[in-house]
Amino acid sequence: MTDDYVQLCRAAGDVSRETFHRLKTFESEFRRWSARINLAAPSTLPDLWQRHIVDSAQILPLGRDAKLWLDLGSGGGFPGAVLAILMAERVGALMTLVESNMKKAAFLQTTLANLGAPACVIAKRIEDAPALVDQPDIVTARALAPLDQLLGLSAPWLERGAKALFHKGRDYAAEVANCHDAWRFDLIEHRSAVDANSVVLEISGLARR
Asked: Concatenated DSSP letters for 48-103?
Protein backbone atom coordinates (compact mmCIF):
# COMPACT_ATOMS: atom_id res chain seq x y z
CA MET A 1 0.00 0.00 0.00
CA THR A 2 1.65 3.25 -1.14
CA ASP A 3 1.80 6.49 0.84
CA ASP A 4 -0.23 8.23 -1.88
CA TYR A 5 -3.02 5.68 -1.56
CA VAL A 6 -3.03 5.99 2.24
CA GLN A 7 -3.23 9.80 2.03
CA LEU A 8 -6.11 9.57 -0.42
CA CYS A 9 -8.13 7.14 1.69
CA ARG A 10 -7.60 9.18 4.85
CA ALA A 11 -9.05 12.23 3.12
CA ALA A 12 -11.78 10.71 0.96
CA GLY A 13 -12.69 7.46 2.70
CA ASP A 14 -12.45 4.06 1.05
CA VAL A 15 -11.24 4.40 -2.53
CA SER A 16 -10.93 1.48 -4.93
CA ARG A 17 -7.57 0.62 -6.46
CA GLU A 18 -9.05 1.31 -9.89
CA THR A 19 -10.06 4.83 -8.87
CA PHE A 20 -6.64 5.41 -7.32
CA HIS A 21 -4.96 4.44 -10.58
CA ARG A 22 -7.27 6.79 -12.51
CA LEU A 23 -6.19 9.64 -10.24
CA LYS A 24 -2.53 8.75 -10.76
CA THR A 25 -3.14 8.86 -14.51
CA PHE A 26 -4.80 12.25 -14.07
CA GLU A 27 -1.73 13.42 -12.15
CA SER A 28 0.55 12.31 -14.99
CA GLU A 29 -1.63 14.01 -17.61
CA PHE A 30 -1.77 17.16 -15.51
CA ARG A 31 2.03 17.30 -15.39
CA ARG A 32 2.29 16.63 -19.12
CA TRP A 33 -0.17 19.38 -20.06
CA SER A 34 1.37 21.76 -17.51
CA ALA A 35 4.57 21.71 -19.54
CA ARG A 36 2.64 23.48 -22.31
CA ILE A 37 -0.08 25.49 -20.58
CA ASN A 38 -0.31 27.05 -17.12
CA LEU A 39 -2.57 24.71 -15.14
CA ALA A 40 -1.18 25.53 -11.68
CA ALA A 41 1.54 27.59 -10.05
CA PRO A 42 4.87 25.88 -10.87
CA SER A 43 5.91 26.13 -7.21
CA THR A 44 3.07 23.75 -6.25
CA LEU A 45 3.89 21.00 -8.78
CA PRO A 46 6.44 19.11 -6.64
CA ASP A 47 3.70 18.46 -4.06
CA LEU A 48 0.86 18.10 -6.56
CA TRP A 49 -0.61 14.93 -5.05
CA GLN A 50 -1.03 16.19 -1.48
CA ARG A 51 -1.51 19.90 -2.12
CA HIS A 52 -4.03 19.65 -4.94
CA ILE A 53 -5.38 16.13 -5.47
CA VAL A 54 -5.80 14.96 -1.87
CA ASP A 55 -6.94 18.45 -0.84
CA SER A 56 -9.68 18.24 -3.47
CA ALA A 57 -10.62 14.65 -2.58
CA GLN A 58 -11.43 15.51 1.04
CA ILE A 59 -14.65 17.18 -0.11
CA LEU A 60 -16.22 13.92 -1.28
CA PRO A 61 -17.34 12.63 2.17
CA LEU A 62 -18.96 16.01 2.86
CA GLY A 63 -21.18 15.46 -0.17
CA ARG A 64 -22.43 12.16 1.21
CA ASP A 65 -24.72 10.65 -1.45
CA ALA A 66 -25.06 13.76 -3.66
CA LYS A 67 -24.95 12.92 -7.35
CA LEU A 68 -25.21 16.23 -9.22
CA TRP A 69 -22.21 18.50 -8.63
CA LEU A 70 -21.14 21.83 -10.12
CA ASP A 71 -17.57 23.15 -9.97
CA LEU A 72 -17.07 26.85 -10.73
CA GLY A 73 -13.84 28.18 -12.22
CA SER A 74 -12.40 24.70 -12.48
CA GLY A 75 -8.97 25.74 -13.78
CA GLY A 76 -6.74 22.69 -13.85
CA GLY A 77 -9.43 20.52 -12.27
CA PHE A 78 -9.30 21.14 -8.54
CA PRO A 79 -11.57 20.08 -7.01
CA GLY A 80 -13.97 19.30 -9.88
CA ALA A 81 -11.93 16.86 -11.97
CA VAL A 82 -10.67 14.97 -8.91
CA LEU A 83 -14.22 14.60 -7.59
CA ALA A 84 -15.50 13.46 -10.99
CA ILE A 85 -12.89 10.70 -11.07
CA LEU A 86 -13.74 9.67 -7.52
CA MET A 87 -17.43 9.43 -8.49
CA ALA A 88 -16.81 7.28 -11.57
CA GLU A 89 -18.33 4.28 -9.82
CA ARG A 90 -21.29 6.19 -8.36
CA VAL A 91 -24.40 5.39 -10.42
CA GLY A 92 -26.08 8.53 -11.78
CA ALA A 93 -23.29 10.91 -10.72
CA LEU A 94 -22.38 13.91 -12.84
CA MET A 95 -19.83 16.67 -12.27
CA THR A 96 -20.29 19.80 -14.38
CA LEU A 97 -17.14 21.92 -14.63
CA VAL A 98 -17.32 25.55 -15.71
CA GLU A 99 -14.04 26.96 -17.05
CA SER A 100 -13.82 29.91 -19.46
CA ASN A 101 -10.16 29.42 -20.43
CA MET A 102 -10.32 27.37 -23.61
CA LYS A 103 -6.96 25.64 -23.14
CA LYS A 104 -7.81 24.56 -19.60
CA ALA A 105 -11.27 23.47 -20.71
CA ALA A 106 -9.67 21.37 -23.47
CA PHE A 107 -7.40 19.70 -20.91
CA LEU A 108 -10.36 18.90 -18.68
CA GLN A 109 -12.56 17.63 -21.50
CA THR A 110 -9.87 15.43 -23.04
CA THR A 111 -8.47 13.98 -19.83
CA LEU A 112 -11.77 13.28 -18.10
CA ALA A 113 -13.24 11.69 -21.21
CA ASN A 114 -10.21 9.40 -21.56
CA LEU A 115 -10.58 8.39 -17.89
CA GLY A 116 -14.28 7.65 -18.23
CA ALA A 117 -15.23 10.16 -15.53
CA PRO A 118 -18.88 11.30 -15.32
CA ALA A 119 -18.14 14.90 -16.26
CA CYS A 120 -19.42 17.68 -18.49
CA VAL A 121 -17.15 20.65 -19.24
CA ILE A 122 -18.74 24.01 -20.08
CA ALA A 123 -16.28 26.48 -21.62
CA LYS A 124 -18.15 29.62 -20.61
CA ARG A 125 -17.94 32.41 -18.07
CA ILE A 126 -19.58 31.55 -14.76
CA GLU A 127 -22.05 34.40 -15.23
CA ASP A 128 -23.30 32.70 -18.41
CA ALA A 129 -23.60 29.23 -16.88
CA PRO A 130 -26.99 29.35 -15.08
CA ALA A 131 -28.89 28.97 -18.36
CA LEU A 132 -26.75 25.93 -19.27
CA VAL A 133 -26.55 24.00 -16.00
CA ASP A 134 -29.29 21.94 -14.37
CA GLN A 135 -29.82 22.49 -10.66
CA PRO A 136 -27.02 20.70 -8.78
CA ASP A 137 -27.00 19.26 -5.30
CA ILE A 138 -23.60 20.74 -4.48
CA VAL A 139 -21.54 23.67 -5.79
CA THR A 140 -17.77 23.71 -5.31
CA ALA A 141 -14.99 26.21 -5.92
CA ARG A 142 -11.34 26.41 -4.93
CA ALA A 143 -8.98 29.39 -5.12
CA LEU A 144 -11.48 31.30 -7.24
CA ALA A 145 -12.62 34.48 -5.45
CA PRO A 146 -13.34 36.01 -2.02
CA LEU A 147 -16.41 34.53 -0.36
CA ASP A 148 -18.71 37.49 -1.01
CA GLN A 149 -18.00 37.22 -4.73
CA LEU A 150 -18.34 33.43 -4.64
CA LEU A 151 -21.79 33.73 -3.10
CA GLY A 152 -22.83 36.10 -5.85
CA LEU A 153 -21.55 33.77 -8.56
CA SER A 154 -23.16 30.69 -7.04
CA ALA A 155 -26.40 32.34 -5.90
CA PRO A 156 -28.44 31.15 -8.93
CA TRP A 157 -28.07 27.59 -7.58
CA LEU A 158 -27.62 28.14 -3.84
CA GLU A 159 -30.79 30.25 -3.56
CA ARG A 160 -32.71 27.31 -5.04
CA GLY A 161 -31.46 24.84 -2.45
CA ALA A 162 -28.00 23.69 -3.51
CA LYS A 163 -25.28 23.42 -0.89
CA ALA A 164 -21.82 24.94 -1.30
CA LEU A 165 -18.51 23.38 -0.34
CA PHE A 166 -15.79 26.01 -0.70
CA HIS A 167 -12.10 25.62 0.09
CA LYS A 168 -10.78 28.60 2.05
CA GLY A 169 -7.45 29.55 3.63
CA ARG A 170 -6.36 31.13 6.89
CA ASP A 171 -8.29 34.39 6.32
CA TYR A 172 -11.66 32.69 5.92
CA ALA A 173 -13.18 34.23 9.09
CA ALA A 174 -12.74 37.75 7.72
CA GLU A 175 -14.28 36.69 4.42
CA VAL A 176 -17.30 35.24 6.24
CA ALA A 177 -17.71 38.44 8.28
CA ASN A 178 -17.64 40.54 5.10
CA CYS A 179 -20.66 38.67 3.75
CA HIS A 180 -23.13 39.26 6.56
CA ASP A 181 -24.39 42.64 5.40
CA ALA A 182 -25.50 41.23 2.04
CA TRP A 183 -26.29 37.56 2.70
CA ARG A 184 -27.94 35.19 5.16
CA PHE A 185 -26.79 31.57 5.25
CA ASP A 186 -26.14 28.56 7.44
CA LEU A 187 -22.47 27.72 7.88
CA ILE A 188 -20.50 24.69 9.01
CA GLU A 189 -16.70 24.92 9.14
CA HIS A 190 -14.80 21.73 8.36
CA ARG A 191 -11.11 21.74 9.24
CA SER A 192 -8.94 20.72 6.32
CA ALA A 193 -7.51 17.21 6.42
CA VAL A 194 -4.48 18.48 4.49
CA ASP A 195 -3.63 21.99 5.77
CA ALA A 196 -4.08 23.00 9.41
CA ASN A 197 -4.62 26.61 8.36
CA SER A 198 -7.40 25.86 5.86
CA VAL A 199 -11.07 24.92 6.00
CA VAL A 200 -13.91 23.73 3.81
CA LEU A 201 -16.93 25.97 4.28
CA GLU A 202 -20.30 24.20 4.01
CA ILE A 203 -22.93 26.80 3.15
CA SER A 204 -26.66 26.24 2.79
CA GLY A 205 -29.89 28.25 2.99
CA LEU A 206 -28.44 31.20 1.09
CA ALA A 207 -30.67 34.27 0.84
CA ARG A 208 -30.10 37.95 0.15
CA ARG A 209 -30.71 40.41 2.96
From this structure: HIIIIIIHHHTTGGGGTT--EEEEES-TTTTTHHHHHHHTTTSTT-EEEEE---HH
Apex 81 CA angle, 29 and 20, nearest 5: 70
CA–CA dist 54, 11 (Å, integer): 7
pLDDT at 1: 58
pTM over 0.70: yes
Overall number of domains in the chain: 1
Largest interatomic CA distance in the chain: 51
Q: What is the CATH number of the domain that holds 22?
A: 3.40.50.150
pLDDT in tens, 95-136: 999 999 999 999 999 999 999 999 999 999 999 999 999 999
Determine the Cα–Cα distance for residues 137 and 198; give it in Å rounded to an integer: 24
Name every residue whose Cβ is closer than 8 Å to that of residue 160 and which is 6 or more positions away in sequence. 135
| DSSP three-state, residue 207 | strand
DSSP state of 31: H
- Residue 106 CB: number of other CB atoms within 10 A? 15
Tell me the pLDDT tens digit for each residue of 127-145: 999 999 999 999 999 989 9
Domain that holds residue 186: 3-208
